[in-house]
Write a structure and sequence with these properties.
It is built from eleven helices and eight strands. The two termini are 26 Å apart. α3 packs antiparallel against α10 and α4 packs across α6. It folds into two domains: 253 residues, Rossmann fold (3-Layer(aba) Sandwich), CATH 3.40.50.10320; 35 residues, no CATH class. It is of the alpha/beta class and 312 residues long.
């Protein structure tokens, strides 16, 4: 295990280990910010970690551009330190095996000055980011990998950047011709068997867009900062191929949400609803299977590990 830790650290990856026990199956989740793991797929992560899967979270940035109140910063040197502490709290709630920080700065939303910061993820050499993810794939040897879709869910530059880097890493990790220096360090090629993007149903979103237009509100300027284009979100949403029932892990999901107290904002009302309603709203999570390509099977998958061994 110490050798594994040293290999990861050598690629400028800062790892916070929570459970180093060897597991038969591994799920690697690659997103951009602290809280992406919780507000995105906390139920699915909890389901698989509870089933004995080693779930590793790769976080590209420390979320420096997130809005944080002064009172929450008390005791923390900066936003990055606070949000890292929140992520570690959520990691405990979700039963993660480890959190791997790639060390880049949050790039902020499109068109902001943060996009131009020299340490921002969007300014990082892509080959370096890809190489870090390849090193993690070759070290951790996951069967299943999960990352953002090409639009990054709602167009966040960091989500899009980590999508491109992860797709490239997924293809490169199994090829000895890519990053041959890693082979000399003892990292042998490894090809994950499956790749997924998180997705959502768009029916309610389309209704919301129609209502906004009736109220003379612009659905292309949604959110607290008016920087989310709901029309583009709908147009770029991937089809659902896989639905995960995580209703038994609702409490773990909500604990993870509450760990991110600086970011939960308007979502907190959901946790105050009666449990049956919360399960109906948040008891399933949806995904698009990219590898192997979806060929129009008659019914959706209900397991990310379907077809791998006996599944889970």
């Amino acid at each position: 295990m110490q050798q594994l830790q040293d290999q990861i650290a050598s690629y400028a990856i800062d790892t916070h280990w929570l459970n180093q026990a060897p597991r038969k199956y591994t799920l690697l989740v690659v997103y951009a910010h602290p809280d992406d793991e919780s507000f995105g797929n906390a139920g699915t992560i909890s389901r698989y970690s509870s089933a004995g899967v080693a779930v590793h979270y790769v976080c590209a940035t420390r979320g420096e551009c997130g809005s944080v109140t002064e009172e929450l910063l008390a005791g923390y040197a900066n936003i990055a330190e606070l949000r890292t502490a929140e992520l570690n709290c959520a990691a405990e709630a979700l039963g993660l095996a480890a959190v791997h920080q790639l060390g880049y700065r949050d790039s902020g939303m499109p068109g902001t000055a943060d996009n131009q910061h020299p340490d921002a993820l969007v300014q990082a050499p892509q080959e370096r980011v890809i190489g870090q993810i390849v090193a993690l794939i070759r070290t951790l040897r996951p069967q299943v990998l999960l990352t953002f879709d090409p639009y990054g869910g709602y167009g966040h530059p960091d989500h899009i950047a980590i999508h491109h880097a992860t797709r490239a890493a997924f293809a490169a990790a199994g090829d000895a011709a890519h990053y041959p220096d890693q082979l000399g360090a003892g990292l042998t090629p490894w090809s994950p068997l499956k790749l997924y993007y998180p997705t959502i149903g768009t029916r309610l979103l389309r209704i919301n867009i129609a209502l906004m237009r009736l109220l003379r509100k612009d659905p292309r300027r949604f959110g607290e900062n008016h920087d989310i284009d709901l029309v583009q979100v709908v147009e770029n949403t991937q089809p659902t191929t896989t639905t995960i029932n995580s209703s038994d892990y609702l409490l773990q999901k909500e604990r993870a949400w509450n760990c991110h107290r600086s970011q939960i904002g308007g979502m907190s009302w959901i946790t105050r609803l009666p449990a049956p309603i919360r399960r109906r709203i948040n008891g399933t999570e949806q995904f698009t299977r990219i590898v192997p390509p979806w060929t129009g099977e008659r019914s959706h998958e209900h397991d990310l590990f379907a077809g791998i061994g006996d599944g889970l």
